[in-house]
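Meet my pick.
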Amino acid sequence: MIKKFILLSLVASQLMVSCSNDDSPTTDPTKELTLEEQIANLVKQPYSKLTPTEQKAKLEIEANDMLVQLDKSKSSSAIEAMENLSRLLDVSSIDIFNGKNGNEVEDILNVSGVYGVYTWDNAGKKWVKTASTTELKFVFPAKESQTANNAVFSSKSTSSDIKVKYNDSYIYGGNGTVEVNDYFFLPNTADATLTIDNKEAAVFTQTAKYANGKEVPTEFSYKMSLNDGYVWEMSGTKASANTSKATLTYNGKNLISFNAGSSAEIDKLIDNDELVQYRGKANGLFQLMDNFVIVADMDLATEAADKEALYKNNTRPAYLDYKDPKSDYKAYYTALNSYEKKISEGNAANFNKNMKLILVSKKDGTKIADIVQHSEKDGEYTFNLPIWDAEFKYWDNWNSTGESFTRPYLYEAYYLKFNDNTEVEMSAYFSSGFEKLQTKFDDFIAAFNKQ
C-alpha cells in the first residue's frame, strides 16, 4: 500500500515546480499567476552580471541551506519506522492477495480482499496474520534495534468503478501462450496512519476521480505529513491542459516545489504512445527553497517527431554474416561509430531546439544561464577485429591477433551557457555540494519507496 501511495509522488518529482514572481512591479499580489505567466515573467529577467565562478560559489552556498534541512530527516522517527517496516517486509514477504494472484485463475481482487492484520513475530522472524474486514494493518518494532512491537501502520481505501487488468500468470500449452488476467478496481480514496507508542507519527491521504471509464484519474491528490515537520504534497488534473504540482516543506518552509503543465492527450497516448502528435507541449518550474528556479518550456510533440525523423534518416549498419569471408568488419565498426555519433549529436540538437531550460536566481531576479546539451565522449574501449578462420570457415571474434579498433562511449552532456556565451558542463559546475543535495533528497524519498 505504501508503494501505491508514493508512486505518483516519485513520477511528479521528475517534473518542475511552482513559484510566483513577486519581483514584477506589474503583478497584482492578490492574483495567483498561471504557470505560463510565471514562466513568461522569469524569462524576461536580465542575465546576472556575476562571472561563472562567482555564480557557482553563490549557488552552492544557497543550496547548502537545503542540505541542512534534509539532514534533519536522519532523526525522523517516522522515517526510521517506515524504513524498518520495509526491511521486515524484505525479511518475510507476505501475499496480501491470499494466493489469488498467480493461481492461473481470473479473479476479481477487491479492496476488502487484501485486508488483514499482520503482526511481526520477532522470534520466528515472520509476519503472523489475523483476519480483518475493515483494514490492512502492520504491527512491528519502530526501530531495527527493538524487539517490541510499538509501531502500527494502518491503511484503508474505497474502490471506484474503474476496473483494470492485472497479470495473474501465463499458461503454456500446445496452442501457444495464454495470458491470464486478474481484475481489480482502482481506489477513489486511500488513507494510512503510522503511530509509534500510541502517538500519531505520520498520516498519508490519497484521493482520485475518474471519468468515462478511463483508468487515468481526471483529478488526483496525495499528502504525506510527518510529525517531525516534513510535509510532501502533490496534485494533478487531466484535461485539455494537464497540470501537476508538488511541494516538500519542513515546518512550513518551502524546500522544493514543482509545477508542470502539458497539453498532451493522455487517453490517446495510453492507447498508443507512438502517436507523437498527441504529446503536445509542456512547461514547468522547479524551485529550490526561495533561491533559484529552473524554467522549462518543452515542445514534446515536435521533439518526438524530430527524434523519429533522426532515426529514420540514419540507418544503423546491419550486422555482418560471420560465415561470409567477404564481410568487412573494419568498415562495419567504422560505419557504426559514425552512426552513433550522428544519433548522439542529433539528440543534443533536438534537445536544444525543443527543450528550453533556463536557470534563474529568484532572489536576485536575474537569469543565470541557459541549459543546453552537447554530445560528449565518456571513455572508450579497444578490441581486436575478427579474423577469418580458413579451416572452420567463420570470423573468429575471440582472438588477440586481429587489428585493434576503438569505439567511444557517447552521451549527451548538460552545459550551462552564460550571457557571454561561456559554457561550463553542469557536472563540473555543480560540484559535491549539489551531488549531496540530490543524494539527500533521494534518501528522503527512498525511505518510503518500498513494498
